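In response to reviewer comment 3 from the previous cycle, which asked for concrete evidence that the modeling workflow produces usable outputs, we include below a single protein chain processed end to end. The sequence was submitted unchanged, and the resulting structure tokens are shown without manual editing.
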Amino acid sequence: MSSAPALWVGTSGWSYREWRGTWYPPELPRSRWLPFYAERFATVELNSSFYRLPRPEQLQRWAANVQEGFLFAVKAPRQITHEQRLQHCDELVREFLQRITLLGKRLGPILWQLPPNLPWHPGVLEQFLALLPESSRYAVEFRHPSWDRPEVWELLRSRGIATVWSSSLRYPLFLQATADFLYLRFHGLHGGFAHRYTREELLPWVERVCTALRQGMSVYAYFNNTAGGAAEDAAHFRTLVLQHL
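The workflow returned the following structure tokens.
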């Protein structure tokens, strides 16, 4: 599903207690955190959906608490990716995709984060992707090196599904452009989730993003170093990209 090129930068989640007093004002009620966040970013990666399927009223409330044009990228449940390992999950996929339609126009790309102990196996990914309707944008994050195969990249290109580009010392980096958009995740480097990105560490990513935007691609970038200043790093990254365009 294609659209006009755009830059979307945010964080992986917004409701972290340690952000009170650093990102969120100390006196701000937790019920106001999402509107506060949405005034500063145009997207967020919904992380809680990985652990449990959000209740319908939650999704509707979140959608109502953000401005026009805001997008929720939604991380698929671990029951599908980690427990069922993409197999025998038809009903789980159907229920998940149906539920998140309650976000309406606020629904952004859908992320399938695969576990690091899930290697490539013939036919598994192809059969899984056949379950996905073409009405949404999807991105797959591979965390096992065996996925680096021409047939994998060709399969994703044939479906217009993005390969996640991950900034991490723990997971492999696959710089494959397999869709009309990029999906970037910044997991932190030396300090893991507590890492703070320096300008020098961000600049190679800035160049990649600027190149993609100049080519007419849209870019979604999410900072998952949530114990180390993800919001500040996301804002810094967005500024750097806009300065270099």
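The chain has a mean pLDDT of 96. We consider this sufficient to address the reviewer's concern, and the full set will be provided in the supplementary archive.
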